[in-house]
Amino acid sequence: MSNKIIIRNQYSHRVSTVKKSNGHSILRIIAYINARKLLNEITGQEHNFSNKSGIIETGFFMPNDIKTDMTEEQFYNHIENNCHASTNIIAYSSIAALPPEVSKEEQVKIVEEFCNMFTNMYGTSISFAIHEADNLKRKKAKLAEIEKYNLPEDDEDLKLQIQNNHVHFVIPYCKIERMTEQDFKAKRKKKSFGDTFKLGSQVKDFNPIKYGSEIKKDKPDLMNLEQNFLQFMREKLCVSINNSLEKNNRIERYTHKSYKDLGLQISATTHEGEMVKSRIANGKKMDVNEYNKQQKAKQQTESDYINFINVPLPAELAYKILNGEKLAEKELLDSLKALPKSELEQAQDLLDQINNAYQLIDNELADHKPEQTDLREKLDRLKESNISPTPKPEHETLSQKLERLKQKQAEQSKPKHDNDTDYSPF
């Protein structure tokens, strides 16, 4: 096994319904995919696609090893003309891309393996037809012109389109059941009876949302493959493709998952059918094509696309991405990140902080004890400071007071100037 894996993003598988209310015909679809001329035995309507070319292989599978002498044309005549009166959907049609990395013989094996598994799973029949790439001649001519004149165009995508064979599936709406002895002996034959088989009940697993009771659950689990027809078709065929690539020692792997389900941040594109591509080749502009151009331009600047898609990766990392483990890691990291709080939550946090502050203040005041006043300590602290206390006046004795008064009288009797005693009338 190679230690490198390339994740391809070209896988495509679409499923559509065949409805009587829309004027659809299961015989017409079978005639188209097989490039044959088929006739409705009841209405006489003819469906002729015998001029169509490019059919590689066709096949028809019955479930549970039921053998029938009916041809494919007779079988689908029986389906179309004897389906339940209340049934609007008479069949399902799907188209899927096949890997260009393997040979046509391997592509046929992939499809046959899938059809065997499908009939055993759902108990109904299935027809397939493998076609060459649409507009193959035009694409080959364009590629030859590019190579001949060495035109400055990227022809890798065109080469893949030339090798891009695809398969059509047609699936009846109902189960195909083996007829019992009682059915063979019945005097009144039901219109649902064939030669060795009969049309059973509608395959309700095809529509798990509508027929949840069929799955024995109140609400069907849409991620369960056995309860989701489209999911089953997309994933199981993709698994068969990857098994074939691995068996043929190819390093390419396809995935039915979207970029989002893989955990990759890549701009998604929209499917372009052959009608759109044909109009673009004729010089017309289509909105879906313009949109895809913008998305593909974005992809060339996105790190996940540049680093993980269509480039060789270590096998361990590639399988980690394909199994969705990268998405699981991303979701885990996102869940660990702190979500931004709303204004109400922020206001509540602020209110809680204020209440806690008030509580701390109350506790501090309750635990605080007043200090005892010590005059000796205060006096010592006062002495240590440079501020000296104001001196108090000493007590004066009686003799000291008498002496002070005598001195005061003597000072008053002395003349201040020489002419203090002169008398003058003026």
TrEMBL record:
Residues 392-420 have a biased composition (Basic and acidic residues). Residues 29-277 form the MobA/MobL protein domain. The keyword Hydrolase does not apply. InterPro entries: MobA_MobL. Residues 377-426 are annotated as: Disordered. It comes from the Bacteria. The keyword Nucleotide-binding does not apply. Keywords: Conjugation, Plasmid. Belongs to the MobA/MobL family. This is MobA/MobL protein domain-containing protein. It comes from Acinetobacter haemolyticus.
